[in-house]
């Protein structure tokens, strides 16, 4: 297996919680990301999935150095991004680009498509000589399936799916190695989502890109991901290949998320057990003791409140090779086979 290009180790981001208007006293912290580790290899896709507020976008911003970590490391080819600044950081940033969730707000309405897609060349002029940029932008539009003749149009003249293609073209401009896509299709109609995901798959192949593909819905990432990490309240609770996560999940939270994914076959859908999680997601400013999922877990016992389960292959599976033996942060991990494949 190839060496990882990105190694994230025990990443932590706490946002201070303050009180008072004038004398802002620190009264606590929002533990948005609280000990996250994963690797990303060249050309692979890691899907990150979890409910709203679990820390997905904060992970993305930390990787892009738009936020600085409270603790932990983000190693890009062995070098810690969190420790870089100035020119060294700029050089790394060129290789890690982002595609944002909302193509309606992430494109400047007063800029033409040509200026939006060519903007990275203003920040990194060494990437393309001035005289060649217009032609490069045309090529990028063509690559993402847009008519290069549209180069002088404005974002409002495009549909949601087309706008996201513009966002992807901008992400490709500097020929990056990694694209962090934060819910790139969540704001789009279901019919358009598949087109954009297919485009991203084609581009991955064509440009040997590694993707960190963030979504809140497990059904979207399956198609594109080689591996998946499921997040809950600032932590990864289960991680594995698509087969391990979708067909052999062992963490109750993953099992609950999967039970909510629609199944096209009405007969199977009828037979399937739907797990409805009780209660709301606890505040990341005050996470539960022990296992963070215990306040909503139907299997919780005393041990769960006392001991924080590590993200590791559960003991029950350690000696058993097979798809159940993958990291799962649960004291009572067990396989729950799904009735249907997606
Ligand atoms: N700049 C900030 N200051 C304080 N709290 C923040 C800040 N950014 C994020 N948070 C908090 O951190 C937690 C994680 O937020 P984040 O945006 O990473 O979640 P998410 O998984 O991307 O959610 P969504 O699916 O809604 O996009 C939330 O409780 C959020 O309110
Ligand atoms: S450790 Fe306990 S509370 Fe947490 S997921 Fe497992 S059974 Fe549920
Ligand atoms: Mg988000």
TrEMBL record:
<comment type="similarity">
    <text>Belongs to the ABC transporter superfamily.</text>
</comment>
<dbReference type="InterPro" id="IPR027417">
    <property type="entry name" value="P-loop_NTPase"/>
</dbReference>
<dbReference type="InterPro" id="IPR013563">
    <property type="entry name" value="Oligopep_ABC_C"/>
</dbReference>
<dbReference type="InterPro" id="IPR003439">
    <property type="entry name" value="ABC_transporter-like_ATP-bd"/>
</dbReference>
<dbReference type="InterPro" id="IPR003593">
    <property type="entry name" value="AAA+_ATPase"/>
</dbReference>
<keyword id="KW-0813">Transport</keyword>
<protein>
    <submittedName>
        <fullName>Dipeptide ABC transporter ATP-binding protein</fullName>
    </submittedName>
</protein>
<keyword id="KW-0547">Nucleotide-binding</keyword>
<dbReference type="InterPro" id="IPR050319">
    <property type="entry name" value="ABC_transp_ATP-bind"/>
</dbReference>
<dbReference type="Pfam" id="PF00005">
    <property type="entry name" value="ABC_tran"/>
</dbReference>
<keyword id="KW-0067">ATP-binding</keyword>
<dbReference type="Pfam" id="PF08352">
    <property type="entry name" value="oligo_HPY"/>
</dbReference>
<dbReference type="InterPro" id="IPR017871">
    <property type="entry name" value="ABC_transporter-like_CS"/>
</dbReference>
<feature type="domain" description="ABC transporter">
    <location>
        <begin position="6"/>
        <end position="258"/>
    </location>
</feature>
<dbReference type="GO" id="GO:0005524">
    <property type="term" value="F:ATP binding"/>
</dbReference>
């Amino acid at each position: 297996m190839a060496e990882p290009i990105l190694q994230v180790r025990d990443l932590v981001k706490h946002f201070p919680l303050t009180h008072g208007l004038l004398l802002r006293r620190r009264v606590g912290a929002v533990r948005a990301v609280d000990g996250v580790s994963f690797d990303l290899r060249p050309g692979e896709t890691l899907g990150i999935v979890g409910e709203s507020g679990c820390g997905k976008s904060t992970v993305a911003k930390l990787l892009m150095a738009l936020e600085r970590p409270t603790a932990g490391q983000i190693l890009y080819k062995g070098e810690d991004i969190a420790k870089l600044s100035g020119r060294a950081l700029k050089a790394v940033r060129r290789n890690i680009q982002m595609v944002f969730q909302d193509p309606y707000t992430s494109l400047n309405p007063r800029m033409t498509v040509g200026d939006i897609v060519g903007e990275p060349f203003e920040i990194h002029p060494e990437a393309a000589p001035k005289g060649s940029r217009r032609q490069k932008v045309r090529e990028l539009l063509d690559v993402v399936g847009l008519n290069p003749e549209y180069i002088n149009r404005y974002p409002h003249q495009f549909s949601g799916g087309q706008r996201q293609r513009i966002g992807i073209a901008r992400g490709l401009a500097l020929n990056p190695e990694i694209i962090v896509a934060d819910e790139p299709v969540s704001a789009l109609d279901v019919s358009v989502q598949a087109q954009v995901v297919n485009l991203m798959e084609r581009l991955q192949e064509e440009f040997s890109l590694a993707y960190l593909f963030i979504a809140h819905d497990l059904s979207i990432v399956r198609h594109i991901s080689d591996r998946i990490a499921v997040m809950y309240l600032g932590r990864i609770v289960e991680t594995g290949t698509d087969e391990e996560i979708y067909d052999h999940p062992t963490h109750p939270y993953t099992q609950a998320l999967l039970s909510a994914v629609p199944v096209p076959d009405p007969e199977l859908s009828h037979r399937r057990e739907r797990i409805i999680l009780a209660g709301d997601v606890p505040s990341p400013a005050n996470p539960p003791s022990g296992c963070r999922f215990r306040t909503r877990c139907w299997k919780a016992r005393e041990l769960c409140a006392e001991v924080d389960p590590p993200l590791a292959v559960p003991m029950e599976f350690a000696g058993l090779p097979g798809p159940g033996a993958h990291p799962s942060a649960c004291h009572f991990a067990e396989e729950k086979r799904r009735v249907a494949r997606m």
